[in-house]
Amino acid sequence: MEFATTISPQIKFGLQAIGIWPGSSYSLLYRAFWTITLGVTQTFQFKYIISCIKNNNFPDLVDSVSTTLPYSLLCLKLIILWLNQRLFNDILTSISRDWHNCDSVSFNMHTMTNKANLSRRYSMLIIGVYWMAVVVYVSVIMEFNYTNESNKAEDHLFLKMEFPFTYDVSPIREIVMVSQFVQLLSNASVIGMLDALIVTLILHISGQIDIVCRELFKLFSEKYGCKLYKAATREVIRRHQDVIALSDNIENLFSYIALMQFFTNTLVICCIAFVIVTSIEGNQNYAMLLKSLFFYIAITLEAFIFCFAGEYLSNKSKSVANAAYEVFWYNVKPSESRMLLILILRSQKRLTLTIGKFNDLSLQVFAS
Questions:
Q1: Residue pair 125/131 in contact by the 8 Å Cβ criterion
Q2: pLDDT at 3
Q3: Transmembrane region positions (predicted)?
Q4: Which of 35, 51, 174, 264 is the most buried (most CB within 10 A)?
């Protein structure tokens, strides 16, 4: 099933890999794979957390919680997306229809192409940042293990887990480390892909809003016959309705994801801050401090992307009402300019993303 072209190849590949892209082969197999791997990983991670609680090992407890919660959040994100497959299909269908409707107008196609190119750049940037965080995280732990080669008992795994078998002998240890690295990289890719997805969807809506504003100015600056004017008016209203419907679908899909995102990110940031402070006060290796800083940047970036997307969508939605005020409505008959009232009234309600339906996502929320 083909959907053009706002969705970048990186995002499409990621959506296929988690089994949510419509019509993709082996989607059930992909879902089973992620369910099993994340389920097993979470089991071993929570067993380690429980052992830290029993042993009153608070520093290790905080450090392990900071790496466990992002995995738990990813599990919940995937479950929500799988349960809302039909809603996600509707979003992709709306995007495909918008591209089809742009074919006959060069300005519309130029606008949407620019948004698609921008979304591709952001996708590569976001996924690249997560990959960099993983590489730094893994490199620091490997360097720590290398410098403490004389004491194998203090060697660190990439992810703190408690296994039901002995893993500190070769080659079992190497297999475990490689498996954890592959999982870290794949999970970071999926997290980055989902963040890039919401940026892509908001950029698509932005392009559609630009087209609505341009059609409004065109409607009141050119001379139409009665029938052509009514047809052009209906097209502007229809396109604006489609923008509102698409925004509502995106809000319904990502609202509770954003709620869990901010709850877990708050806890993770607190844990990372504790690790950073203890690293500084304990005069520990600055490489371990660097590991925590890059992890902190990645987690903060995730929260910022959601807040920026909500702020951008909210501000962009105001441009429809502003365009309706600024068009040359006084050059047409009052009966013909009446449709502006509909657009203005509909534009009074800002398009936005929310945190669980009770608070708007904005840069103010991010700063607080």
A1: no
A2: 46
A3: 122-142, 184-205, 253-280, 286-309
A4: 264
Determine the Cα–Cα distance for residues 28 and 365; give it in Å rounded to an integer. Answer: 37
Q: Are 272 and 291 in contact (CB under 8 A)?
A: no
Q: Token pair for residue 236?
A: 């502007």
Model confidence over 5-47: pLDDT tens digits?
Answer: 688 888 999 999 999 998 888 899 999 999 999 999 999 999 9
Q: What is the DSSP string of 243-270?
A: HHHHHHHHHHHHHHHHHHHHHHHHHHHH
* CA 51, 54, 60, 63 torsion-angle sign: positive
Which pTM was predicted? 0.90
How many domains does the chain divide into? Answer: 1
Q: Over 90: is that where the pLDDT of 348 sits? A: no
Is 1 within the bounds of a domain?
no
Which residues form the domain of 200?
9-367
Distance of CA 213 to the CA centre of its chain: 27
Q: How far apart are CA 154 and CA 146, in angstroms?
A: 11
pLDDT of 147-183, one tens digit each?
Answer: 766 555 556 788 888 888 887 787 888 899 999 999 9
